[in-house]
Structures are given as structure tokens and as C-alpha cells.
Task: inverse folding
């Protein structure tokens, strides 16, 4: 079922810039989600993350994160807006029992190397004379220092981050869904889009949708800022009209005169439409019609060029060179700190439980790493290669023990041994549908789920 | 002894449902009729207190098993690796042996069909007295609270309305009569449209439309040869993959081998059994990825223990390396509602709704 559906491949190749690393870098630089410039205190700036889009960082490029409180099954964790940080410099040693049906008080793994919350997530401390600016405010910490907050939530950096503008500690995509952990998310300035639109984050990129969730399309037959869709066409492809009063052109956005007195939104000079045959919000059936395309304000970074796309019973997934679905591993522990356990530098016992019944070797057979050629070149900063010792799941101490594998956001990606091309058997595999301790497929297009 | 569910017993219903001759108002048009699945439960035969089929008591769930295996005691600190993660490891990769004795159902009455056309020593007898019923799932599941008639879960998770991934549509073709026809074809598809309900959402309405998924859902298309006698469709066996969806946006499909359908047909409803040999590993993946341990605990369903029990009594698809089988005989109690099927060419294969259905639609009932 290694489908090479021309339309689909074209669309996804466009979405991912599958043409190669150099092109990917260029296109990522060309197309980023525009943002609204806001006043910020000294010490902060905006950088463009190839995955997240515009993000706030410190002046040295370290991304800054919030940790908004979320209620879990038996209580909640994280920061309450405008309240003191819940991230303390005390090592937690037992779980909280947030995730039913398991009790609290179980001893956490690898306590000798476990960081405190503050060690893993250093607070962004403000100078003593700092003053609030716009959405940026100050919150007192328990030790009487002042911590920067954005929109009322205390700010942190991540001990995991290594390069300027690359937030490895957290992402706005995936991870924190449903019964997932209370995650830290990189903060971003608001996107510069008209109020009639939203941006949906998916593994394919920042997808433009209309308010209410309808997918937005452009036509190959339209000219720059000129619609050629009238009569029967406009009954199927509904122009997204701009208000007669108050609509304003801005970066990436123009307002075209569709007919005398009728204005239509255009994005990057392409008139915008919704598709009347999309059965509801979230559907992308229109992309199966020749000449019509979904719209990304920012495309996802290109995966390795040997990767493929694969049609499954649920939509389209990213797959390895042999067509096996690619999975990303998610993990957050059940402590008050909700520390990550999804990275080679964090405890591996969680992953071993769901991938191999606790056995690392069985785990590596069940969920094989996606091996990269020794000389494989990373297409960007999001898809990279790393060395892993499969016996420990960690970076190898001796190079001879290692596998050279593909990684997404500095975390290895996997396939599932029981999959064949076109199946997604390990979707939602693990505790709480894989959101808490388990795997999620790398969906490029979900046709049925979530609706 | 009160039997709460009776499907084959519903043969009694056959007489109560009028079966019209095919006429202009019939939903059978162009010699075909479609139905969409609205309800699917495993057909488990049980008694209210369970003492007859479960003399050793009912099985306990994840929460209770945890307390037995890792008892609280003053000063004792259990490591999460040896407790919670050990239990989760067992759920996803079940060990060969259970640490807690399992309660299998006893007795020789079960719902289901005779899948191998034989009467064997391990077979059951239907409540109507038919011999040779193949339903080893009765042994494995009848003492699990989650699957019993009294289960809260039976009514709480109506997956057929919640998701679009698992819309099951059947189309009967070559139909000359809904009452008697010795040569019809049943084709399964995945439907693309939500099942139509009344304004309250509690009643399924006939005469909805279903488009068919012939692109993403090719593996869900299967054909069964059958016949209709006295308004009951019975098919021969064929392999079938049923789409399955649940919480957490998971998808997992379950293979049913040598599947047979036995449905009481009516102009607006079809009801009966889908029986076959269910792939146990497919079930394990589907149930674990679609309901978390937390949710399984509501029904005291320890899926690792249940998986071991299913493999122990499985009766089809022998392991090529020897040992236990991989598929288990079972039956689903299903209910379906008539729909008009819209094929790829965008023509509706049947006529407009029947007058009765149209009246119902108009009345919003």
C-alpha cells in the first residue's frame, strides 16, 4: 500500500518541502507565521523557530516557557495565572497519584540523578528594578526574588535547550493533549491574522482555518490577488469575504475586490475559500480536488529525504523508507513537577514498560529506532541524527555500542514491529492513549479522528 | 433464571416485525438495501447474580489487582518501576502466566453461531437449543464485570455515535425479497457519514444517507454470500476487518475470521448476530489503545488477565510455532438502521425514503 497518489504526494511534498534540505531551509525562512509586534521588557526578543514559528526568547536566544495549570484525574499541577510559581527547588521523590488507577506515594526512578523542578526549569528572574510592560508582569517567588510572567503565567527556561531559538523543552504541538502531562509550552507573540481566521497546529505545519474550524483553500487557477472562481465554482468553493467595514490589509494579507462592493480575503496574494463539500470542521477533502490546496502560514520542517508518506485507514502518516509509520514517544512523570521522561537524557524506565514489558532489548525489537546512514545529513534543526545505545536508550558512553538514528526535536523516532505499510497499530499505544507514557503516530492528515 | 439478552431468542421478534413484499415504497430498490450499524456488544450469556456461570466469583480489575499485588503496609515504599510500570508493561506485553487466578465461566449455554458446522465437546448450546455454538469468548469474558449485562460500560460508551472512523455499513444486493431469497450478497463498507438520530440523539432514524469510503477504507470491504429465510439473513463465512475507534483518537482494526452474519431484516431495522473468530492480538491492541487502564478499571477489566484467558481458550488460528491459538470464537449482538447508500458515482442506489421513514423524519422522531 505504498501509495504514491500524485495529488497527495504533491500536497504533502509542498507541505514538507520534500524536495531536499537546502530548499527546506530556504522555504522555512520564507514562510513563517507573521506575528503582532508588542512591547516587551529589556532582556527578551522574538526569534523564529522553524517548528513553532515566532517565539519569545531571552536575548541570548534561550526560549522562554509557561507552565499553565491543568487538572488531571486526581488533582492538578502547574502554575495558576498571576500566582506564585509552583516550580520549587526541592527534589520530588514519589508520584502524586494524579493518574488513576494507580495510587500516590510510589518511589520515582533514578532519584540520584533526578533534578529539582528549578534545575530542570530555571525561572526567568527579573532584575530588582524591573517594571511590568504590557502583557509582561512580575510575580514574587518564595525566595523573594521576582520572576517574569507573560499573560500572568510565570516564565522559565529549559535545561534541555542548547541552541538559540530551538525550544527542545516543550512544544505547542502534540504532547500535552488529553490525559497527557502538564507540559511547558514556549510562549509566542500573537499571530498577525484577521479575526475571521485561526491557526491549527498539526504535524504538517501551521494550518490556516476559518473561525469555526473550516479548512481554508487556495486555487491554482487564481492570479495574484485575483479570483477566477465565479458562477458554479463559487457555489462549491465559497469565497471568504472580508467585512465591508473595518477589515485591514496587513503583512501576508490583502483584501481584493471580488465583485463591485464584494471584498475577499487573500493570503500571500492567493484568494481564500472554504469547500462546500467538506462535511465539517477539520475536514480537508478539498485538497483531493485538483488545483486546490490547503494553506499553511508556516510549514513543518522537512523530514529526512528518505522518509515517505503513507496512506492508512485513518489518513496519511509520515513513514520510513520502507513505508512503516513513524511514531513519536511522549512521556511526563506523575510527580508534582511533571518532569519529562521522553528524552534520552531522562529516565527510560517508563518507555521500557510500554514498549517491552520492562525489557530494553525487547523494546528495541518492538519499537525499532529509525536508523540513519552514518553520513546522513540533518535537513534542518528539527529533524536531526543522534547516537543511541539501544541497551540503555541513552546516548552511548562508547561509540561502538551505538546506533545512529533519526530524531525529531532531539528525541529518537520509532517504527512499530507489528505494522506493515499502511497500518497504524501503535497509534495511542501506552498509558492514557500514549499521551502520558507512549507513542503517537506522526499524522500528516487525519481524515476521521477527532470529529 | 432471568436471561437479560436474547438475540437468537429474538427470532420470536421475527413474527412481530412485518416484512413487506417489495413495492414502490420499499427501501429495497434496484434489488438492494443498506443498513448502518448502531449498536454492537459482545453477546455474553449471563444471569443477574452470576452465581450460575461464575461460581468462583467475578474477576477483579486493575485497581483491585494492584492492591492485592502491592499491599499497603507501614513504612513500605513501593517503587513505581516495580508496581505501576510493571502493571502497564503487563498490559501492553502480557506475560505468559497470571499472578492472580482467573475466573472462567462454566456452563454450556451461549449465544453465537456454529462457525465450523460441527458439534464438538467444547461447543455450547444456544438458549434456543441449537447445538454446536462456537463461543469461547463466553468462557473468557462472562465473569468480567465489564462485559456483563449489568455493566455500566455497555451503555456509557456509544462509540457508534462518537466517531466517524468506525461507521459500519452493509449493503445487501441481489435481493428479490426481504422475506425469502436464496441468493443474496452482503457487502461491508465503512460509511462516511454520521448515523442519523432524532433531535434528542437517543433514537436512530432510518432513511439516512451514507456515502461509502472506497479510498481509505478498502480493507473494510468484504463480501458474504447468503440467503434469506423467513426474514432472517444468514451468510456463509468470510474474513472481515471491522474498523474500531475509541478514546484518545486511536484507531485499531479487528480481524474477524470466517465471519458469518445472522440478521433479522426489516424495512427500517436489522438486528442479530455477527459471529466469527476474533483475532486476540488485534483485540488487545484495540482495547488498550481505545480505553485507558483508568477507564478499564471502571468495569473491573484487567486487560492483561483477560488477554491471557482469551489466548488460553482461543480455538482458531494456531500459532505456527505451536502453543495457543490466536483467534477466539465469539459473537457480536448488533443492531442496524436502514440507510440509503450513495455510491462513488454520487447516485443513490436506492429510491427516496419510504413514506413511513419520510414521515418520521419530518416529525423529527
Result:
Amino acid at each position: 500500500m505504498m501509495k504514491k497518489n500524485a495529488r497527495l504526494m504533491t500536497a504533502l511534498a509542498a507541505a514538507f518541502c520534500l524536495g531536499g534540505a537546502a530548499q527546506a531551509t530556504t522555504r522555512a525562512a520564507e514562510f513563517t507565521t507573521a506575528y503582532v509586534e508588542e512591547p516587551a521588557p529589556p532582556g527578551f526578543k522574538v526569534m523564529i523557530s522553524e517548528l513553532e514559528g515566532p517565539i519569545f526568547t531571552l536575548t541570548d536566544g534561550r526560549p522562554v516557557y509557561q507552565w499553565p495549570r491543568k487538572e488531571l484525574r486526581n488533582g492538578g499541577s502547574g502554575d495558576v495565572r498571576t500566582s506564585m510559581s509552583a516550580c520549587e527547588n526541592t527534589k520530588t521523590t514519589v508520584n502524586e497519584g494524579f493518574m488513576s488507577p494507580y495510587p500516590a506515594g510510589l518511589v520515582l526512578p533514578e532519584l540520584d540523578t533526578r533534578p529539582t523542578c528549578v534545575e530542570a526549569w530555571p525561572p526567568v528572574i527579573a532584575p530588582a528594578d524591573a517594571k511590568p510592560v504590557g502583557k509582561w508582569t512580575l510575580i514574587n517567588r518564595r525566595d523573594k526574588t521576582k520572576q517574569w510572567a507573560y499573560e500572568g503565567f510565570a516564565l522559565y527556561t529549559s535545561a534541555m535547550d542548547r541552541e538559540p531559538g530551538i525550544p527542545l523543552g516543550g512544544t505547542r504541538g502534540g504532547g500535552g493533549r488529553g490525559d497527557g502531562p502538564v507540559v511547558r509550552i514556549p510562549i509566542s507573540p500573537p499571530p498577525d491574522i484577521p479575526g475571521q481566521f485561526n491557526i491549527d497546529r498539526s504535524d504538517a505545519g501551521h494550518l490556516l482555518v476559518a473561525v469555526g474550524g473550516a479548512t481554508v483553500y487556495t486555487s491554482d487557477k487564481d492570479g495574484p490577488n485575483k479570483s477566477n472562481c465565479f458562477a458554479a465554482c463559487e457555489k462549491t468553493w465559497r469565497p471568504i469575504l472580508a467585512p465591508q467595514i473595518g477589515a485591514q490589509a496587513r503583512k501576508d494579507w490583502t483584501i481584493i475586490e471580488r465583485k463591485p462592493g464584494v471584498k475577499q480575503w487573500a493570503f500571500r496574494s492567493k484568494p481564500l475559500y472554504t469547500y462546500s463539500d467538506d462535511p465539517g470542521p477539520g475536514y480537508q477533502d478539498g485538497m483531493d480536488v485538483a488545483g486546490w490546496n490547503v494553506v499553511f502560514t508556516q510549514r513543518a520542517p522537512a523530514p529526512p529525504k528518505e522518509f515517505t508518506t503513507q496512506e492508512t485507514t485513518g489518513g496519511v502518516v509520515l513513514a520510513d523508507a520502507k513505508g512503516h509509520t513513524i511514531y513519536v514517544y511522549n512521556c511526563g512523570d506523575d510527580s508534582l513537577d511533571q518532569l519529562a521522561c521522553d528524552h534520552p537524557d531522562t529516565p527510560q524506565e517508563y518507555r521500557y514498560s510500554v514498549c517491552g514489558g520492562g525489557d530494553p532489548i525487547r523494546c528495541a525489537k518492538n519499537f525499532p529506532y529509525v536508523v540513519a546512514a552514518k553520513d546522513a545529513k540533518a535537513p534542518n534543526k528539527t529533524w536531526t541524527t543522534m547516537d543511541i545505545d539501544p541497551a540503555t536508550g541513552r546516548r552511548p558512553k562508547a561509540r561502538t555500542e551505538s546506533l545512529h538514528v533519526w530524531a525529531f526535536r532531539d528525541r529518537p523516532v520509532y517504527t512499530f514491529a507489528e505494522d506493515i505499510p499502511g497500518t497504524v497499530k501503535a497509534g495511542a499505544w501506552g498509558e492514557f492513549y500514549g499521551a502520558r507514557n507512549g507513542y503517537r503516530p506522526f499524522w500528516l492528515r487525519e481524515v476521521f479522528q477527532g470529529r | 433464571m432471568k436471561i437479560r439478552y436474547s438475540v437468537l431468542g429474538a427470532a420470536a421478534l421475527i413474527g412481530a416485525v412485518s416484512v413487506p413484499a417489495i413495492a414502490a415504497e420499499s427501501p429495497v430498490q434496484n434489488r438492494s438495501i443498506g443498513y448502518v450499524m448502531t449498536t454492537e456488544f459482545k453477546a455474553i450469556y449471563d444471569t443477574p447474580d452470576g452465581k450460575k456461570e461464575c461460581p468462583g466469583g467475578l474477576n477483579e480489575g486493575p485497581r483491585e489487582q494492584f492492591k492485592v499485588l502491592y499491599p499497603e503496609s507501614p513504612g513500605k515504599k513501593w517503587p513505581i518501576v516495580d508496581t505501576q510500570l510493571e502493571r502497564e508493561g503487563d498490559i501492553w506485553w502480557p506475560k505468559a502466566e497470571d499472578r492472580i487466578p482467573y475466573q472462567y465461566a462454566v456452563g454450556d449455554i451461549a449465544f453465537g453461531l456454529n462457525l465450523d458446522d460441527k458439534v464438538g465437546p467444547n461447543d455450547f448450546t444456544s438458549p434456543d437449543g441449537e447445538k454446536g455454538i462456537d463461543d469461547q469468548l463466553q468462557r473468557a469474558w462472562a465473569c468480567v464485570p465489564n462485559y456483563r449485562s449489568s455493566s455500566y460500560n455497555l451503555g456509557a460508551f456509544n462509540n457508534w455515535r462518537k466517531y466517524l472512523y468506525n461507521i459500519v455499513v452493509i449493503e445487501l444486493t441481489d435481493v428479490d425479497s426481504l422475506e425469502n431469497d436464496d441468493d443474496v450478497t452482503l457487502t461491508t463498507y465503512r460509511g462516511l457519514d454520521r448515523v442519523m438520530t432524532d433531535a434528542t440523539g437517543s433514537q436512530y432514524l432510518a432513511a439516512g444517507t451514507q456515502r461509502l469510503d472506497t479510498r481509505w477504507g478498502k480493507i473494510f470491504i468484504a463480501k458474504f454470500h447468503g440467503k434469506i429465510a423467513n426474514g432472517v439473513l444468514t451468510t456463509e463465512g468470510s474474513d472481515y476487518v471491522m474498523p474500531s475507534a475509541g478514546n484518545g483518537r486511536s484507531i485499531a482494526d479487528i480481524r474477524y475470521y470466517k465471519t458469518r452474519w445472522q440478521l433479522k431484516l426489516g424495512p427500517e431495522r436489522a438486528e442479530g448476530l455477527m459471529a466469527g473468530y476474533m483475532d486476540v492480538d488485534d483485540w488487545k491492541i484495540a482495547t488498550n489503545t481505545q480505553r485507558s487502564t483508568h477507564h478499564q478499571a471502571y468495569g473491573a477489566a484487567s486487560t492483561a488477565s483477560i488477554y491471557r484467558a482469551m489466548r488460553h481458550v482461543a480455538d482458531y488460528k494456531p500459532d505456527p510455532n505451536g502453543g495457543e491459538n490466536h483467534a477466539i470464537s465469539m459473537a457480536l449482538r448488533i443492531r442496524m438502521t436502514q440507510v440509503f447508500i450513495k455510491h462513488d458515482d454520487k447516485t443513490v442506489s436506492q429510491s427516496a425514503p419510504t413514506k413511513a421513514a419520510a414521515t418520521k423524519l419530518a416529525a423529527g422522531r
Notes: The longest helix of chain A spans residues 6-16. The first strand of chain A starts at residue 44 and ends at 49. Chain A is about 10% helix and 25% strand.
